[in-house]
């Protein structure tokens, strides 16, 4: 697998992205971080040793999602390097209800760190608060909740929203109608990115782009496929679709690729190169974006261990080393940023294997 970023660039990129977020006045993710009832407490000891045998539980939004398989491989690798025990827990549907069960199970098993991609920013909090009371450090990754101690953000919400706005604008030569096919209605991450995209659409350069609808496929392949079909029935003249979820983008591409709309309706959003390659090759998709999912999980694993050990509390300015990814700094309280998204197209999609 080709690394997305030379190691020494990760820190620089992360800093730049975070500064951009601050300058742009914030997104839902930033707001969530501000509302966070967890957040930094105590004093960090950068020399604190990471205890051996840490039990670190990863709760993705759902199992059987190729994106989270990659993320959790990264998490597992980090925990192995640290001599701990990684457990992945979750159901096949992206719901907060099922996550509550798995948070409770992790807590009962004596989890030291719970790393969660929340399906709802609030519904998971009573269970997470209880786990924290029982000694677990709580880390959000991918999709934050309002009660995590720290959030490992894949990028800034503003930058992901802007990247998607730029891609669809490019595809439609600056003018036309498009719809959004999202994941679940309560997903913190997708909602932040959609909000950021909508803000970009207010800019003069995007005045001729019209967002006509936002629908939700719940990160279920079939539901997403059907939502895409429904969009074309409701808006037969639609010019494009943006899907800020790997599940939605793959399903939308499959539908358009096999339909009369191929080549007529632009499809873009967030996807993995391995899922999207065939649709780039058959001309359904020109470009899409993502970060390295493996690195997101790896960084989250190291962040959880550093937090539990007391190397960090998540306060602005603190730094720690995340294994082979190198040093990361909290540019804002309670949030660490992996780096900018990468745009894939026919020129580079074959260079990536994830
Ligand atoms: C899906 C999930 C995940 C998101 C990616 C881009 O796999 O919704 O939360 O980060 O897409």
Observed structural traits:
single chain, 354 residues, alpha/beta, 14 strands, 41% helix, 18% strand, elongated, disordered N terminus, binds alpha-L-rhamnopyranose
Explain the overall architecture.
This protein starts with 6 loop residues before the first helix and ends in a 9-residue tail after the last strand. The chain has eleven helices and 14 strands. Strands 2-1-3-4-5-13 form a six-stranded parallel sheet, sandwiched between helices. Strands 7-6-8-9 form a four-stranded parallel sheet, with helices on both faces. It is of the alpha/beta class and 354 residues long. The radius of gyration is 20 Å and the shape is elongated. The structure holds alpha-L-rhamnopyranose.
Present the secondary structure layout.
Blueprint: H1 7-23, H2 28-35, E1 55-59, H3 66-81, E2 85-88, H4 96-108, E3 113-116, H5 125-133, E4 137-141, E5 150-153, H6 157-171, E6 176-182, H7 188-201, E7 209-216, H8 221-234, E8 240-243, H9 246-257, E9 266-269, H10 273-281, E10 287-290, H11 293-309, E11 319-321, E12 327-329, E13 335-337, E14 342-345
Parallel strand pairs: 1-2, 1-3, 3-4, 4-5, 5-13, 6-7, 6-8, 8-9
Antiparallel strand pairs: 10-14, 11-12
Helix pairs in contact: 3-11, 4-5, 6-7, 8-9
The chain binds alpha-L-rhamnopyranose (RAM).
Alpha-L-rhamnopyranose (RAM) binds at residues 61, 65, 67, 117, 142-143, 183, 189, 219, 245-247, 270.
């Amino acid at each position: 697998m080709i690394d997305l970023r030379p190691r020494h660039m990760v820190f620089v990129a992360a800093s730049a992205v975070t500064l951009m977020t601050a300058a742009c006045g914030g997104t839902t993710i930033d707001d969530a971080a501000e509302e966070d009832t967890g957040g930094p407490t105590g004093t960090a000891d950068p020399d604190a040793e990471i205890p051996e045998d840490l039990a670190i539980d990863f709760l993705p939004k759902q199992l059987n999602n190729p994106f989270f398989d990659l993320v959790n491989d990264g998490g597992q690798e980090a925990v192995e390097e640290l001599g701990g025990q990684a457990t992945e827990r979750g159901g096949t549907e992206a719901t907060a209800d099922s996550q509550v069960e798995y948070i409770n199970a992790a807590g009962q098993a004596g989890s030291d760190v719970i790393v969660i991609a929340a399906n709802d920013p609030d519904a998971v909090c009573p269970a997470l608060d209880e786990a924290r009371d029982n000694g677990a450090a709580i880390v959000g990754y991918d999709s934050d909740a309002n009660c995590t101690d720290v959030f490992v953000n894949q990028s800034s919400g503003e930058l992901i929203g802007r990247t998607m706005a730029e891609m669809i604008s490019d595809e439609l030569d600056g003018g036309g109608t498009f719809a959004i096919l999202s994941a679940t209605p309560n997903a913190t991450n997708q909602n932040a990115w959609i909000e950021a995209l909508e803000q970009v659409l207010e800019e003069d350069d995007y005045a001729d782009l019209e967002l006509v609808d936002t629908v939700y496929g719940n990160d279920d392949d079939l539901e997403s496929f059907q939502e895409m079909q429904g969009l074309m029935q409701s808006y037969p003249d639609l010019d494009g679709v943006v899907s800020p979820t790997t599940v939605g983008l793959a399903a939308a591409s499959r539908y358009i690729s096999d339909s009369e709309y191929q080549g007529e309706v632009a499809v873009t959003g967030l996807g993995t190169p391995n899922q999207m390659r065939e649709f780039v090759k058959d001309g359904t998709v020109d470009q899409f974006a993502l970060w390295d999912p493996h690195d997101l999980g790896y960084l989250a694993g190291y962040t959880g261990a550093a937090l539990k050990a007391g190397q960090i509390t998540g306060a602005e300015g603190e730094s720690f080393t995340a294994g082979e990814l190198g040093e990361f700094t909290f540019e804002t309280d309670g949030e660490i940023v992996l780096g900018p998204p990468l745009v894939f197209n026919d020129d580079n999609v074959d260079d990536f294997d994830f």
